[in-house]
Amino acid sequence: YRCDDFVVNDTKLGLVQKVREHLQNLENSAFTSDRHRKRKLLENSSLNSKLLKVNGSTTALCATGLRNLGNTCFMNAILQSLSNIQQFCCYFKELPAVELRNGKTAGRRTYHTRSQGDNNVSLVEEFRKTLCALWQGSQTAFSPESLFYVVWKIMPNFRGYQQQDAHEFMRYLLDHLHLELQGGFNGVSRSVILQENSSLSASSKCCINGASTVVTAIFGGILQNEVNCLICGTESRKFDPFLDLSLDIPSQFRNKRAKNQENGPMCTLRDCLRSFTDLEELDETELYMCHKCKKKQKSTKKFWIQKLPKVLCLHLKRFHWTAYLRNKVDTYVEFPLRGLDMKCYLLEPENSGPESCLYDLAAVVVHHGSGVGSGHYTAYAAHEGRWFHFNDSTVTLTDEETVVKAKAYILFYVERQAKSGSDKL
């Protein structure tokens, strides 16, 4: 209990839960008496440390950090990034709360999801509560232990305290939120809640694994995959939904580490997007089964974006396998803060409006270190016109110059709604 380790399985008599509840009762009584003292300390010290000078006036830093529960920076960086995607975050914060415990323990400061059955575990609810805690400004750091416990329960890959891949966690998180949102919520269908949100119209939905949810409505796009047989010329097309795009860093840039290095041209996000969408001849291990030739043949492949999402998530493939281990590509990739133009990658660009293909950066996840199983994750995110650096429990105000120097791992771009400049990639 003191080191906050998790005991997932209890005894038949529930002895672990009895010990936990006894210790929790002691903590609750101490919490009540300490509340006023902590509030005074917050007002006198913590709050003063969170005052910033912005444009000559003093303002409060309302951002809240996330405590590291043991190599959980991969989770914290993703949560902070998603919390700064306004449309996505607001949807969850406006959902009605679910009380997973009732009776005399309801409303008390308890680890309410611990030692509960799988039926009483709600990823959506813990995700909602975490997002609500991040921008209320009442504390400098929030402990996402209840959310982490639910992650352990429903995502066995992330059990334990070893370092995990932030992109893999993001995909699992979005997929499980999507699946849970397709079920009922307090007797109300989640799809009904989605339909009542006027800003998420039916035309914006992209179905993945069933009905549309806020996850697919915001992050969902559609790729067209074209494969051409080089022997008979037969063309095959199929449409694939996506929540993010994983981009290779072109091999010619992989030795260029820093932004100010002079050896050769700078790798840009456009180079990575071009490498993803350019015509490619498949190698011998990827021979295409041609229905006309009735056998596997050499072929070419090309991706087009058939539908762009409201939030474009771009994952740079920084980790690759060699003979014995997984290495990191530490190349700096230049990316724009504003005006990422995706029109040239669209299947039918002529059907798009003048500004419907422009995206502005909302958040960046950065991996510091050499390997996927080690190192550290932090995130930069924009909130109400200011950039913040989220490093677990520490949140600092930063500037655009610092953000653009980051070696991005995951980039979150939000579709531009109104004209705001003409900077383009």
Q: What features would you describe in this structure?
A:
The strands form eight sheets. Strands 9, 15, 19, 20, 21, 22, 23 and 24 form an eight-stranded mixed β-sheet that branches. The chain has a four-stranded antiparallel β-sheet with strand order 8-7-14-11, with no helix packed on it. The radius of gyration is 24 Å and the shape is globular. The relative contact order is 0.12. Residues 34-59, 100-118 and 185-205 have low confidence and may be disordered. With 425 residues, it is of the alpha+beta class. Helix 4 packs antiparallel against helix 5. The chain has ten helices and 24 strands. Residues 64-416 form the USP domain. It is an enzyme of class 3 (hydrolase). Pfam families: UCH. It comes from Piaya cayana (Common squirrel cuckoo). Belongs to the peptidase C19 family.
Topology:
Elements: H1 15-49, E1 51-54, E2 57-60, E3 65-66, H2 73-83, H3 86-93, H4 123-134, E4 141-142, H5 145-154, H6 166-181, E5 184-185, E6 188-189, H7 190-196, H8 214-219, E7 221-229, E8 235-242, E9 245-248, E10 267-268, H9 269-277, E11 280-281, E12 288-290, E13 295-297, E14 299-307, E15 311-317, E16 319-321, E17 326-328, E18 333-334, E19 340-341, E20 358-368, E21 376-383, E22 386-391, E23 394-398, H10 400-404, E24 408-415
Parallel strand pairs: 3-4, 9-15, 10-18
Antiparallel strand pairs: 1-2, 5-6, 7-8, 7-14, 11-14, 12-13, 15-24, 16-17, 19-20, 20-21, 20-24, 21-22, 22-23
Helix pairs in contact: 2-6, 4-5
Pfam family, one: UCH
Family: Belongs to the peptidase C19 family.
Protein name: Ubiquitin carboxyl-terminal hydrolase
